[in-house]
Amino acid sequence: MNTSRTEAAPQAANVVFIHPWDKAAAGWNSHAAAIHEWLAEATAAMLGAARIGPGARVLDIAAGSGDQTLAIARCVGAHGHVLATDVSAAILALARDNARAADLHNIDTRVADAQTLGLEGAGFDAAVSRLGLMFCEAPLDALREARAALKPGGRFSALVFSQPQHNPCLGVLMNTALRHAGLPPRSPYAPGALMSLGEPGLLARLLHTAGFSGIEMRTIAAPFHWPTSRDYVDFVRTSGTPIMEILAPLPAAAQRAAWDDMAAQLKVFDTPGGWVGPNELLLCAAACPL
Ligand SMILES: C[S@@+](CC[C@H](N)C(=O)[O-])C[C@H]1O[C@@H](n2cnc3c(N)ncnc32)[C@H](O)[C@@H]1O
């Protein structure tokens, strides 16, 4: 792997900036196998929608610890290249470790907020983002930045969570965390929220406003399989930044009570073959005009 990456985490003298997502980096990465299986079909659809093939130069936005980055790197091959970007320096460090362990040498990383990516004119053939865009409070800025990084005719594809009724576990997690923290309920479509881009029609409108053409949207079912609801909650406890952040100010015992409450409520999704949490993703595909 090329190590000539750009690292731009904001720092002041003697102060290292810790992004909230840094705290979930190890947890997200340690559940990589489960995440890979959960999102395998959707990831293949995203790469297909972006028409990623051998030799392509691809931008991966909010790449995390790089599960889809590695899939892209394999797909583009030795003559292609992937730039994995993320706001968390800690999670990108794990993406680099994973690329090295997989013996992939066509990946670079760059710490960057999707909303201020700063890659205008980079001329990528394609840009993708898996479960990252919805965390942007200004998703239109992120889409404009993605478009600016593409060559004319370049492809964009992204996966986000769809509507609350099709992602009931997310509602249970969020509402329970807020209640235990003594906070009022929040709109699932609030900017930056887990399902913020699931609001019907919103992502297509934003893509259009950002200047993309040929916009296509479809939903993909992505049930999440775990042995028990407790295993799912343990995953969220270490990897789910939005929920972790709500509970973080509480004493340890109060946090435990909240996680226990979530695990108990989520038993409703027990099946004879284990726990299956329904999830629905929205896949968008679009092109940068010629
Ligand atoms: C749910 S994880 C998904 C990671 C990876 N794409 C995957 O699917 O495995 C969300 C990722 O979005 C990143 N993220 C959140 N807000 C971001 C922003 N404004 N700009 C760039 N990355 C962001 C987080 O650091 C985290 O790595």
Task: Write a structural description.
The protein has a domain at 17-163 and 189-225 and 280-287: Vaccinia Virus protein VP39 (Rossmann fold, 3-Layer(aba) Sandwich). It has 10 helices and 12 strands. It has helices spanning 22-30, 32-49, 67-76, 89-101, 139-149, 168-180, 202-209, 229-239, 241-247, 252-265, and strands at residues 11-12, 15-16, 57-61, 81-86, 107-111, 124-130, 150-161, 213-221, 224-226, 270-271, 274-277, 280-287. The strands form 3 sheets. It has a 7-stranded mixed sheet with strand order 5-4-3-6-7-12-8, with helices on both faces. It has a 3-stranded antiparallel sheet with strand order 9-11-10, with helices on one face. β1 and β2 form a beta hairpin. The radius of gyration is 19 Å and the shape is globular. The model is unreliable at 1-12 (pLDDT under 50). The structure holds S-adenosylmethionine. S-adenosylmethionine binds at residues 21, 35, 62-64, 67-68, 86-88, 91, 113-115, 130-132, 135-136.
